[in-house]
Specification:
single chain, about 90 residues, mainly alpha
Length: about 90
């Protein structure tokens, strides 16, 4: 349990969260599944990071489900599957 507590303390540390947000901002991250955009989160950054840090450290933070989106794939018509090759 000590390892996990230490890990969560490091994860929830404000300098770590600030650094992580800076990377998201640098990469022009998209909105989260909660609908909050990067500029909206940045508008009240100190308070938002404090709230996030507290939620992580106390175990009260529960992330939203990941956003889903379709990834177009090439057509597989005419291609044999591994099972078809081995039958």
């Amino acid at each position: 349990m000590t390892f996990m507590k230490n890990f969560l303390d490091q994860l929830a540390a404000l300098p770590n969260l600030d650094s992580a947000f800076a990377r998201v901002q640098l990469k022009a991250g998209c909105r989260g599944s909660d609908g909050i955009t990067v500029p909206h989160f940045a508008a009240n950054l100190p308070a938002n990071l404090r709230d996030l840090s507290h939620g992580l450290a106390s175990g009260e933070y529960h992330p939203y489900p990941l956003m889903r989106f379709a990834v177009p794939k090439r057509s597989t018509v005419g291609r044999l599957t591994v099972r078809q090759l081995n039958s």
